[in-house]
Design goal:
Chain A is an all-beta fold and 121 residues long. Chain A is built from no helices and 11 strands. Chain A is globular and about 40 Å long.
Chain lengths: 121, 107
């Protein structure tokens, strides 16, 4: 059974930083691209970043490029999202998702439950 | 950057009704389009990918069609458990943009 469990969210002051983690199990982690998607309270889904199975290729939304870094440790089957210079508009539920196939350009067939990031002073 | 526009933004229908949601891309994306269902308070679930392929376990009352810029999601006979917000998403290239969502309610 595929499981994705996010952690690392919390209340952070503007300008602060966080590292989100997503522990994956139930599939060959290194064979699939992975993704972070966020959802602000009461709003729609926003794709944030994607990374290939090897970790060599990454892509970012314009809204987060330069502040967010996606990475993965295939030996630990864990996906990460390092976030710096947090802004109020980054407040959202952050989902980790597994891509249907390797390659960032693919839909997402499994999602975690999400970890909430709240940016407020 | 390609924009994804869904319509309507919300709809109300009766059990058994045929429901159609449309998604338009501002540029052609061949068939690199997915549909997701998000029930209230729940995680999104993949319904359809490659515009028309039903994901494993998804009821056959859901179907998708389209190519290029215009796509549709159809629920052939609306059921109470289909109350949800539906999102299209393009994935031909980054950014993998979602549409704004269509909220489906029961009349």
């Amino acid at each position: 059974e595929v499981q994705l469990v996010e952690s690392g969210g919390g209340l952070v002051q503007p300008g602060g930083s966080l590292r989100l983690s997503c522990a994956a199990s139930g599939f060959t982690f290194s064979s699939y691209a992975m993704t972070w998607v966020r959802q602000a309270p009461g709003k729609g889904l926003e794709w944030v970043a994607g990374i290939s199975g090897s970790g060599r290729t990454t892509y970012y939304a314009d809204s987060v490029r330069g502040r967010f870094t996606i990475s993965r440790d295939n030996s630990k089957t864990t996906l990460y999202l390092q976030i710096i210079s947090l802004r109020a508009e980054d407040t959202a539920l952050y989902y980790c998702a597994k891509n249907l196939r390797d390659g960032v350009a693919a839909p997402f067939d499994y999602w975690g439950q999400g970890t909430l990031v709240t940016v407020s002073s | 950057e390609i924009q994804m526009t869904q319509s309507p933004s919300s709809l109300s229908a009766s059990v058994g009704d045929r429901v159609t949601i449309t998604c338009r891309a501002s540029q052609g994306i061949t068939n690199d389009l997915a549909w997701y269902q998000q029930k209230p308070g729940k995680v999104p679930n993949l319904l359809i990918y490659d515009a028309s392929i039903l994901h494993s376990g998804v009821p056959s009352r859901f179907s998708g069609s389209g190519f290029g810029t215009d796509f549709t999601l159809t629920i052939s006979s609306l059921q109470p458990e289909d109350v949800a917000t539906y999102y299209c998403q393009k994935y031909n290239s980054a950014p993998l943009t979602f549409g704004g969502g269509t909220k489906v309610e029961l009349k």
